[in-house]
UniProtKB/TrEMBL annotation:
PROSITE patterns: CBM21
Keywords: Carbohydrate metabolism, Glycogen metabolism, Phosphoprotein
Record GO biological process: glycogen metabolic process; regulation of glycogen biosynthetic process
One Gene Ontology term of the molecular function aspect: protein phosphatase 1 binding
The protein's name: CBM21 domain-containing protein
Location of the CBM21 domain: 118-227
GO cellular component: protein phosphatase type 1 complex
InterPro entries found in the cross-reference section: CBM21_dom, CBM21_dom_sf, PP1_regulatory_subunit_3
Amino acid sequence: MSRGPSSAVLPSSLGSRKLTPRSLSCLSDLDGGVALEPRPCRPPGCNRQLRVRFADALGLELAQVKVFNAGDDPSVPLHVLSRLAINSDLCCSSQDLEFTLQCLVPDFPPPVEAADFGERLQRQLVCLERVTCSDLGISGTVRVCNLAFEKQVAVRYTFSGWRSTHEAVARWRGPAGPEGKEDVFTFGFPVPPFLLELGSRVHFAVRYRVAGAEYWDNNDRRDYSLTCRNHALHMPRGECEESWIHFI
């Protein structure tokens, strides 16, 4: 090992290999391509090494350019157009506003509000409580009789009149009923865009597996269904756009 008048000491194990900084904060450790004794770039006791790589080092472009033709129609989501229309009406109108939206509406009242809900639950051991719809899809709650600790609840649904089916596994939310003899599960599944056309329908039923047996709630063999319909929404002039979005 030798030391020149203006050179730093190079460990013999490195040979002539050129060192690179561990991170951007270590750039000052390199001076004219000669490796100086490195300074710690991380807290003591941390063995994690930081690496910085740029897109061009991986053969990628640093920038992406998208060219739009003047004749191309922009693809704007329906909910964005609805909000733009509401903003325009709010600015130009001094009266309360009323809108008509296309959305999925349950074809049945909330089962949990029925007078015989408890009787149905004891008979079927599983009952749908209620269901709600939004832009994100369909969600709801299911109540089951607590027959054993290990249990599984799922919702089988179809967008094609049962020609094809899908399943969504429900998650346990908590106990319910007297002395915790019942459990509540929550479920949810997405809705494809084509179902937001008038007349489109979703069918589903609830399955409950426990203690090696299987039980169903299919609305007394009629299936639960939701249909896309026009839904009138009334909005007072004084309310803001955020209130409308929260309501939806």
